[in-house]
Specification:
Number of strands: 0
Structural class: mainly alpha
Strand content: under 5%
Helix content: over 70%
Radius of gyration: 25 Å
């Protein structure tokens, strides 16, 4: 195998690894954005609303 073949294989591997890295970075950013409150539509906001409702239900049940 010549040095040209080895270099082309190395460049191909680096390109594939770079693409995988970019894809993983995009997915991580997308999923982490769901964990930050943004005014109503994120998972964090929905969880906060549910927690408030459960606390209120618990208060109503404990008054009896």
């Amino acid at each position: 195998m010549s040095w040209v073949s080895a270099a082309s294989i190395a460049v191909g591997i680096a390109t594939v690894l770079g693409g995988i890295t970019a894809m993983v970075q995009f997915l991580i950013k997308h999923y982490l954005s769901e964990l930050k409150p943004n005014g109503g539509s994120s998972v964090k906001d929905q969880l906060n609303r549910l927690e408030t409702r459960v606390d209120r239900i618990f208060e109503l049940l404990s008054e009896r």
